[in-house]
Amino acid sequence: MATANGAIERTDALALLARQDINEIVKGSAKTSAALSSFRTITMSAGTARMPVLAALPTAGWVSESTTDKAGLKPVSEVAWDSKELIAEELAVIVPVHENVLADSAFDIWGEVKPLVVEQFGAILDAAVLFGTNKPASWVDPALVPGAIAAGNTFAAGSGTVKDLAEDINAAMGLVEEDGFDVTAAYSHRGLKARLRGLRDANGQPIYLHEIRADGVTSSIYGVDMHFVENGSWNKAAATALVGDASKAILGIRQDVTVKLLDQATLERADGTLLHLAQRDMVALRFVFRVGYAVANPIQAGNTDIAKQFPFAVVTPAAA
Fold first, then answer.
1. 204 in Cβ contact with 101 (< 8 Å)
2. Which fold has domain 34-316?
3. Other beta carbons less than 10 A from residue 157's beta carbon
4. How many CA atoms lie within 13 A of 87 on its CB side?
5. Nearest-angstrom CA–CA distance, 258 and 312
6. Which letter does DSSP use for residue 212 in this model?
7. Which 3-state string (H, E, C) describes 58-89?
8. pLDDT (tens digit per residue) in 35-45
9. 20 to 30 A Cα–Cα from 85, which one of 51, 178, 201, 269?
C-alpha cells in the first residue's frame, strides 16, 4: 500500500523484487573418527576373529661347567601366547523421508545425509573405544582411557616439576615408554589447540610449532601424530590428553558402512509408533556398520606383571 505522499515502499513491492536463492547448505565440515583414522585396522572375514598375543617371555640364564650343582643346568623356560578375540558389533540407523520431499528438493538430500551418518558412526565408535561410553559387552578389552588408568598410567595435569601442558604430555609419554612401548599418537579435544599455541619458553617464544602432516589434516607433537577429536565424543572430565602406541589398538572391520534403500518396510520408532513407508509414500535409507575392537598388550621385556603395563597413558585434568 502506498504511503500518504504516494511513494511505493519496499514492503509494497516485495513480490516484484529480485531474489537470489543460494544453492548451498551452511554446515560444518564432516568430522572423522580418530579411531578409524589412526588405529590398526584389519578386515574380518567372519563375525569373530582371533589374534595371538605374546603372554610370556622365555627366561635364559648363565650356565657354568659344573657337573654337580644346579648352576651347570641349562634353564628351562616357557613361551606362551594368549588368544585375543575381535567380535564384530553393529552400528545402524534408518533415515526416512517423504518421496515428495525428495522430488521437490533443490538439493541432493541423500548426499547430505550420508556424511552426517558416517560422522555419527565415528563419534559413537570413538566414545566407546576411547572412554568406554556404551561399549558393547562383547568387547572385553578396556577402552583406552579406563585401561590406562587401571594400569596406573596416569599423570595429573600440572603435577610435574615444570608445570605446563608440554611437560604433562611428555610425562605421559614416559609412562608408556617405561612399559616398553613407543608412543606413535596423541589424542585430545579441540580446546587443547589454544593451550598448545600459548606455550612459551623462557624468552617468551612459542614452543609449539603447529606442523601439518602430509595428509593435510593431522597435526604433530614431539614428532608423533596429534589427533584432535572433533566429533563431540571427547570426555573432557575424564582426560585432557591420551598418548600411546596406536598400533596396539585394533579395529576389525567386518562390514564397512553399507546403504540399503527401503520402500515397503514398516518402521517402529523409539516411542513404539509405527511408520508404514508404502502407505505414506515414503522411502528410507538403512545404514549399517559392523566393527570389532581389541587392545593388544603383549608382555614386554623387563615387565613381570602384565596387568601393570598398558600401551597408552592419560593426562588427567588437574581437578582430578
1. no
2. Major capsid protein gp5 fold (3.30.2400)
3. 22
4. 10
5. 32
6. B
7. CCCCCCCCCCCCHHHCCCCCCCEEEEEEEECE
8. 998 998 888 88
9. 178
Please tell me what DSSP assigns to residue 9.
P
The alpha-carbon radius of gyration of the chain (Å, integer) is: 28
Give the tens place of pLDDT for each residue, 175-212.
999 998 999 999 999 888 888 888 887 777 777 766 66
How far apart (Å, rounded) are the C-alpha atoms in residues 95 and 102?
13
CA-CA distance, 197 to 192, in Å (whole number)? Answer: 9
* Cell numbers linked to 219: 597435526
CA distance 152 to 160: 16
For the chain, give me the number of helices (H) and strands (E)?
Answer: 6, 14
User: Cβ(222)–Cβ(165) under 8 Å?
Assistant: no
Contacts of 102 (CB under 8 A, 6+ apart): 109, 110, 283
Q: Cα(126)–Cα(145) distance, rounded to whole angstroms? A: 11
Other C-beta atoms closer than 10 Å to the C-beta of 92 total 13
Give the predicted TM-score (pTM) of the model.
0.79
Regions of the chain with pLDDT less than 70: 1-31, 50-83, 209-218, 300-305, 319-320
Would you state the cell numbers that stand for residue 319, as one nine-digit string?
581437578
Query: Could you give the angle at the alpha carbon of 33 between the alpha carbons of 96 and 145, nearest 5°?
Result: 120
Q: What is the DSSP letter of 129?
A: I
Beta strands in the chain (DSSP E): 40-43, 48-56, 80-87, 89-98, 154-156, 185-189, 219-221, 224-229, 241-244, 249-262, 266-268, 274-276, 282-295, 312-316
Residue type, 162: V
**Pairing state of beta strands 241-244 and 224-229?**
unpaired
Compute how many other C-beta atoms are within 10 angstroms of the C-beta atom of residue 206.
12
Q: Phi first, then psi: what are they for 138, rounded to 5°?
A: -75, -15
What are the residues whose beta carbons fall under 8 Å from the beta carbon of 206, sequence distance 6 or more? 197, 199, 200
DSSP state, residue 13: G
